[in-house]
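Q: Convert this sequence to C-alpha cells.
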Amino acid sequence: MLRLHESTNAQLQFLLGSRDYAQQYALLKKALGADIDFFAEPNKYGDTTRWSLENDQVLVNREIRSFSELSDEDKDTIADYIEDKKAAIAPLLAQHPVFEKDYEQLFLVPDESSIKVVRTEMGLQAVLTEWACQSSETTSTIDPVGYTIQRPRKTTALVLIEVFYTDGTPATDKPFFIDYLGRSTQEKTTPEGNYNRGRCKIDSTFTVYEQSETTDQQLHPQTFTVHPEGEYKVYFPFITSGKIKVIDQQDQPVPEVVFNLDLGDAPFSETSNHQGMINLVQIESGKTLQVKEQAYPENQQAYNIQKQGNDFLFKIHRPIKVDKTVKVINQHEEIQIGHPITLRQNDEAQHYTTNESGIVVLESLEVDKTVKIIDQKNPANFIAPLVTEETEEYILKITTPEKRLVTVLLLGYKKEPLPNIPIDFTYQALAQQGAPTTLTTSNGAQPEEQGKCTLPYEDFEDKEKVKALIHLPKTNRKKEVKKDKNGKPKEKLIQKKFTFKAEQQAYTIRLRRRPWWLLLLLLLPLLLLIQCEKEVYVKVLEAGTQTPIAKAQTSFTYQKAALFDFNSGRFFTNDTIPASQKTDTNGVAGYYKLKYTIYSYLFKSASKALVLAYGQNCYGSDTLQPRYHGLQNKDTLVLQLAPAMIPLDFKAVDAEDLEPLPGTKVEIIAEFNGKIYRDTSLTEADGRVIFSRIPRCGQIKRIFASKQDYHPDSLLNRTVDNLLAGTLDSTRRLKLRPMKERIKFEVTNCETKEPIPNAQVNIDFIIRGKKKRINESTNTNGIGKGHYDSAYVNAEFVLEAAKRYYQICGDGRSRAKGIVKNFKDKVIKVCLCPQKLPLELSNCDESNGKRLSGVKNVVIVKRNGRVIRTDTLMSNGNGKFLLSDLRQDDLVTVISYYPPYYKENRTKIKDVKVKDLLEGSPDSRQICLESNRKTLGFTNCDASNNQGLPGVKNIITIKRDGKVIKVDTIVGSIGGRFLLKDVLPEDEVTIIATYPPDYKENNTTVKDQKVKDLLAQGGSVRICLEPDKEPKEPQVNCRAFFTGGLAGGNIEEAGISQIFNIDDASEYVGKGDYPNNKTAFPKAVARSFDGIAIDKNTRVIIYSQPNFQGEILLDKTGPAVINNVIWKNDSRYNKVMNQTFPPALQAIFPPSVREWSSSDMHKWSYGSVKIICKK
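A:
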C-alpha cells in the first residue's frame, strides 16, 4: 500500500454525510473490481484521513506527483485517462442500489491537488484522493475532475452540435439524449438550436438520439466521430398532424373513400369519414405525402408536410350520368331514317340506328366527358361534344349523294336561249309508259338560266336516241305571237333528236335556217371567172402622238381564190399572196395591183387580209384583218404602233444589312417621244417589284422607293440599256436607309422603386423575323436610366434587365416589349426583384486569427432606413454563422459578444451594405474579438540576493466575482519564471510561494490583487522568498553525520563509528546555517572531530572561523565520506576507506565516494558550517 495523501478532516466537507468512507470504499471495490484503483482507500486516524493506493504492486516507482506538476503532454494523458475511467465507472454506479442517487458526488474533490499521479507498467495513472469531498475553507463552483476533462488538450476537440428538424428549421429548446463513452444524458438545445457538448476526445464517437416515452428505445439515433473543427448537424423529425378533406367536383364532402397514403417509408390506408375527412396523426414535417385513391389510382395528389397548417383538399371525380339525343340530317337539313351511327365513350363502342324521326336516344353519358358520335357509313364524319348537365340535342350532319340530271338547252336561230318553249321528249323509258314527256324550257333571271329542260339521268340508257318535238310559237315582225281563229297561239313543230351518252349530261338543240342563196349561184357560173385588181395603202402612226413612223416594216397578205386559174390551169384555187413594204417619210406604204376574181368576191367574201406593221426595237407591232373584198380601191389602212414595252424589275433592300424589304412602294417615271409613263407598285416578299410596261427605247427619269420607317432612295436619269447592262443587285437595287430613334429606359428596384445604376440591359430587336441583341447598361449617377440611339423605328423589341444580386421577377415586370416607334419620347420602365442573399460571417480570436465558436452575435438588419429584424446567432464549431434572406442594399450591423473572455466588437461591421460584404475580401466578413484573457509573468527570487529561484511551488488562487474559480499549483522554471495564463483583468489573484525547507513561505506579495493592477506594474512581478536559515531536523537525503571517530560501515572498536548509527561520539545535523561548530555537532567536537558522512542531495560547507568567516575548509555534496587525513597511514583506521559496508550503506557510500580530508579535521572544530539540501 502506498500512502498518497493525508488530509485534515476539519478542512474537508464530506459529501456522503455520516456514511463511513471505509465502508463505502469496500462497496466501491466490490462494484468496480480492478477499476477501484481510480479511488484511493481512505483510513481515518483521529483528526486526519490517510488516502492510499491499495494495489501498489503495479507501480514502477513510488514517486507521487500532483496534476499541476505534470508537463502539458502528461496532463493531456491524465485527462484522457480520467475521462475514460469516469465514462466506464459512471454507468456502473448509476445502476448500483447504494450509489445510484449520488454517484456523481463520488467524482468531486476539493481541488486539483487531490488528483494524484503515479506511474505503473501501463503508464501514468490518476488516483482520486479526497473523493466525495469539498473544501470547507473555500467556496468554489469548479469541479476539478470535470475541469480536467474539459480542459483544452491536443487529444480533444470542441463539439458544438447544431440540431435541426428535417424540414431544415432549427430545433430550438429541444430536449434530446446524447450517449458519449457509454454514458447517456438528457440535454436541451439553446433558443438558437445549438448544444455545446464541450471538449471530447478526437476519434471518439457519440450518438445523439430521441427516446421513446413508453419503451425508452432510442429513436432517430445519429452517430458522429469527433474531429478537429468538425461539424455536427443532427436532424430530428418534427411530428405534427393534419387532415385531408375529400370533396367531389361539386365541392361536396365524399365519405367512405379509401386512399393509399405514403410518406416515403411505410405505406398505409385511410378511409374518409362521414364528413369526408381523413385525420392525419404522427406525420413528419418536411416530408411529402403521396395520396392515391385506391379505386382510381390515377387520381392522386402530393402534399408537402409543414409544421402547422396541414389542412389539405383532395378533389375526386364521381361520374354524373345524363341522357342525350342525337339527330341525323343531311346537307339539305333532311332527317335520315334508319341511319347507322356509333357512340364511343371510355374506349367502348355502342351501335345505334335512327328512328322514324331521325333520332337516337343516348343513355347514361358521363358529364364533363367527351364522347364521339360517328357516322358508320363515313367514319371520317363525326362529332365529339363535351357532355354537360344541360338539356341539349346533338346534330350529326351527313352528306347524301345528289340526284343526277340531264340538261337540254334550246337555242334559237341566232344562238339565243329560247325560254318558255314546250318540248315533247320521247325515249325508251317513256315508251314503256306509253306517252311522251312534255317539258317547258326555263325562264330564269340570268341568260344562263334560260332555255333549259332537265330530265332524270337514271331514265336513260347509254347511246339511245332521244327525240324532241319543239312547239315553236309563230311571231310577226313585231315579235308578237300569232293566233288562230280560236285565239290559240300558232305553233311551228320542229323535230330534233340527239344521242344520249352516259358520260355526258348536257345537250344543246339549235334551230337553223336553210341556205336559199345557193340557187342563185348556180345561175351565174360564167361571172365567176372575171378577174379584177385594186391598190391599197398602209399608213403607220405612233399610237400615242399620231405622228407618222418612217421606215416601219409592213406586210400585206391575202387569199386569192379562183374558179379556174388560167396561169396554172387549176380549178378552185385558193392561193396566199404575200407582199411587204417599208413606209416612206409620211409613214405610208403602197400595195398595187392586188388581183381578185368575181368567184372570190362571191364565194370568198369573208376571207380576210392580214396587214402587219412593226417598228424595229423601239416599237411594238400592230395588225389588221379586214375583209379583203370589203376594201375599196385606194383605201388607206391605218396601223398604230405603240412603243415597245419590256418588263423591268427592281429590288428594294435595307441599306444596312441588304435584306429584302417587302411592301416597299416603288414609283417609276419614264419618257419616250415626249410621252410620260408612270407606274407604282409594291415589292414582293423577296423585295422585288416588276414593271411590265416600260418603253424599250425610253428615258427613265426617276425610280423612287419609299417605305414607312425608312428613308427613301431613288435612281435618276437612266436609260433602259444602262439598267439592263448589269445584274439586278448592281444596277437596279434601291437601298433604303432605316429610320432610327433613341429609346430610353429606366431600371428600378421592384420593392423600393429606387433606381438601379449600372444595371445590364439586354435588348433583342426583331427585324423582319431576325433577332439582333444589343447590350446596354443604365448610368452610374444613381438615376438608373439609359438609352440606345440606333433603334430601328419599326423593329419589335424585347428589353430585359439584369443586375448582380437581383433576379428576374416572375410576374413579368423585369421585361418590356413593343415596337420602337410606339415608344418615341417615352421611357421604357422595367424593374428587378432583389435576390434573397445568404451571408456567412465568422468570429475569430484577434491575437492568433483562430476561429471562435459559441460567440453570441447580435445582428441588426436595416432596409430603407428602417430596422427590419434583429437576430441573435451563435457561431458554430467552425466559428461561422449564417445570415439569410438579405437584400444587396440592406445595411448590416453585427455586435459580437463572448463575455467574459473577450471584449465585444461592435465596430467591425456597422451599417455595412450586404453587397460590400459579399464582394469584399474574406477578412471583411470576419469579426475578430480582442481577448480579455491575459497572461501574467512572475519570477520567484531569493530575497537575499534577488537572483531567480527555480523550483518554487506557487499555489495560485483565482477569484472571479468574489468566488474562487480556480486553484492551481505552478512550479517556477529556470530563473524562477512562471506564467499565469487565461485570466481576466478583473480577476483577483493570490499566490502563496513555498520552497520548504530552504525558504520561508511568501503569501503577501500577491494577495487578492486584480490582474489589471498586476499588469500595470509592467514586466514580470517578482515574488521573493527569504532563505529559511533556522536549523531543521535531519531528514533522509537532507542530513550530515558528524563523528569524533572515523566514519565507517561497521560497529567496531573504539575510534570508528557506523554511519547513521548514533553513538556517544556521533550525531545527525539537519539543514541550516550553524555559526559555531561546537554547537552544531558538540559530541563529535568533544571526542576530537575525525569523520563526516554526507547523505545524498546534501551539501556541507565548513568555514575555518565562526559566523561563516575565514577559509572554506570543505564544500562537498553527498553522498560522500570524509575522514581525517592524519589517520591515513594508520592501519587500525585506514581500512574503513576500502572495506565493504553493509548493503544499505554500501549502496550509498561505495569506496569511490570515500576520501581523506585536505587537512587535520581536529582544527575544523573551531569554525562554522552550512548544511544545504537540494531538491
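The first strand starts at residue 2 and ends at 8.
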